Amino acid sequence: MSTNYEILRNLTHEVATQYVGQTFQLIRDGQPAAAFDLTAVERLMPNRPRSSRMKRDPFSLYFTGPAEPLLPQGMYDLKSESVSLDGLFLVPLGRNEQGRYEYEAVFT
Hints:
Strand order of the largest sheet: 1-2-3-6-5-4
Number of domains: 1
Strand content: over 45%
Mean pLDDT: 90
Radius of gyration: 14 Å
Shape: globular
Structural class: mainly beta
Distance between the termini: 24 Å
């Protein structure tokens, strides 16, 4: 069985795309605190060859969270029915047209 750290360490663009459209619960103190929707997974620098030092192509996960509160940049645990993304570093990007906050997690 993989540890949650191994899931993030081994996550690839191809694997992450299967989670698009899923709702993740932000976990605080062991309890669900807010819902986040995974809206997109995008490759970074898709036309550039991967360095031999990198084990995966860099990509970003994009989440939409609640309208309030704005979460500061930091590490969070997000869980869906199919995967736990513990220790995910989220960066707030701003509000979308619906007034909900958007966040990005970058993988290199």
